[in-house]
Amino acid sequence: MVRIGVRNQGSGVRGVGVVLGLLFGGLTGPLPAQDLGLPVGTPAARLTLPDLQGVPYDLGLVIGKKPVLVQFWATWCSLCRALIPKLQQVRSEFGDRVELIGINVTVNESKARAGRYLERHKPPYRALWDEKGEAARAYDAPSTSYVMVLDAAGKVVYTGVGSDQDLVAAVRKAVVGPEVDRR
User: Torsions phi, psi of 100, nearest 5?
Assistant: First the structure.
């Protein structure tokens, strides 16, 4: 995992400790949701990013129209690879009711390498290329494996980092609302 551009919002020391703990294995359990990234309730930016072939994709086509799960990933991120089965569970349970977007952070990446990764691992998301870091900044993505779930209104209902995230439960909050998800 690599830290990819965090604004300091008053928790800088704790945020650095979390990132260092993840890098060096100092944390034994999953990170609590909402500790990093955009705060819950924040409206997500509607950006346009290219896919790996350079074709622009307007996130405004889905953000604010249906629930969306966004994951920041890289080919070298083992936590990202570990999330693929969880993303497949989301796709299996919710189908097309939820849009899955994977945004490659492009750090130490090439489009060819990313394309080979997608072909080999077959993550169930639309893969986009964030070469200028526009999405990382707009979504306050603290690292790879960062997941952000948006409800149908385009507001953040969940954020998390790492491979131990319960993505089905996070997406359920966006699909049926937090008041129904009482597990």
Answer: -110, 125
Q: What is the CATH number of the domain that holds 151?
A: 3.40.30.10
Q: Are 66 and 152 in contact (CB under 8 A)?
A: yes
Tell whether the model's pLDDT for residue 102 goes beyond 90.
yes
Cα–Cα dist 34/92, whole Å: 25
Is 4 within a domain? no
Inside any domain, residue 1:
no
- Rounded to an integer, the average pLDDT of 106-116 is 95
Distance CA 102, CA 1 (A): 15
Task: Give φ, ψ of 101 to 5 degrees.
Answer: -125, 130
Residues listed for the chain: 183
State how far the Cα of 15 lies from the Cα of 99, in Å rounded to an integer.
29
Indicate the pTM of the whole model: 0.80
At position 116, the amino acid (one-letter code) is R
Whether 24 is covered by a domain: the verdict is: yes
If one counts the domains in the chain, the total is 1
Round the CA-based radius of gyration of the chain to a whole number and report it: 15
Contacts of 174 (CB under 8 A, 6+ apart): 67, 68, 69, 98, 149, 150, 151, 152, 157, 158
In a domain, 70, yes or no: yes
